């Protein structure tokens, strides 16, 4: 029986565990790709990301959106500003992309209550431009990409051509610079999950053509790990956009009575801290059909999904 876990958004401040591969020696170089606004576990994930960066475990290279509803760049800027990184690179897709937005109106609340210098999406570059600029500037096989939303940007990156930042086409740039892709996507060993099927064409392109290792944080993992209740009950945390979001959203759903399911937070955690002792890995390769459903090929290689440790 898998253990039911409860975590809080601020829990990461007290984590001092090691990487599964050994004691952390250098910060993990992270590009964070989010559908910020469709759900609010993204807020927990970016909070965790900044906390780990503050503790020296990670270096945030960029924060990009995989959705393009008007205001998403500002929402990300609100959170980056709150965590004292107001100039953090932000990108938003400029071509075809989903416009998924929250129904609880927490994004509007953050934009109304908290400072941000980015007023609309036109103030930031295309997400692929940010990817190419950042990747080209980094040492070979050094960048970890964490995607907790749709695969739209990564499919566009694969299709991108040489530019002012690199003479390499996208596929070769990824092969040269990316160490690991951690993806909150899929349901394992098989199922149909939102991040995969919402842009199923992009999902198929990425998972079939990605050259670096891929680690999947599946639906079944975050479903059992809850976040937020200790945060919203805290009397010491005030004037926090993170607390505001969880306080606003948790009461609006019976499913969140024990806290919000923590899909995206787990992706950030394992990307930076490693998967042990919480999880083991299943080796193979994802198979995505035209409808966006996924299965798993145990005979494949180079991809892994998380399994709860017994």
What does it look like?
Mean pLDDT is 92; it is low at 1-24. The radius of gyration is 18 Å and the shape is globular. Strands 4-3-2-5-6-8-13-11-12-7 form a ten-stranded mixed beta sheet, sandwiched between helices. It is α/β, with parallel strands linked by helices. It is built from twelve helices and 13 strands. The protein has helices spanning 41-54, 72-82, 106-113, 127-137, 152-159, 170-177, 194-197, 200-209, 219-222, 229-233, 241-249, 263-273, and strands at residues 5-6, 28-34, 58-65, 90-91, 143-147, 178-184, 191-192, 214-217, 225-227, 260-261, 279-288, 293-297, 303-308.
Give the uncertain stretches in residue-range form: 1-24
Number of strands: 13
Q: What integer value in Å does the Rg equal? A: 18 Å
Give the integer mean of the pLDDT values.
Answer: 92
The strand order across the widest sheet is 4-3-2-5-6-8-13-11-12-7
Largest sheet: 10 strands, mixed
What tags apply to this protein structure?
12 helices; alpha/beta; 20% strand; 310 residues; 10-stranded mixed beta sheet; disordered N terminus; 3-stranded mixed beta sheet
Blueprint (SSEs and pairs):
Elements: E1 5-6, E2 28-34, H1 41-54, E3 58-65, H2 72-82, E4 90-91, H3 106-113, H4 127-137, E5 143-147, H5 152-159, H6 170-177, E6 178-184, E7 191-192, H7 194-197, H8 200-209, E8 214-217, H9 219-222, E9 225-227, H10 229-233, H11 241-249, E10 260-261, H12 263-273, E11 279-288, E12 293-297, E13 303-308
Parallel strand pairs: 1-9, 2-3, 2-5, 3-4, 5-6, 6-8, 8-13
Antiparallel strand pairs: 7-12, 9-10, 11-12, 11-13
Helix pairs in contact: 1-12, 2-3, 3-11, 4-5, 5-6, 5-8
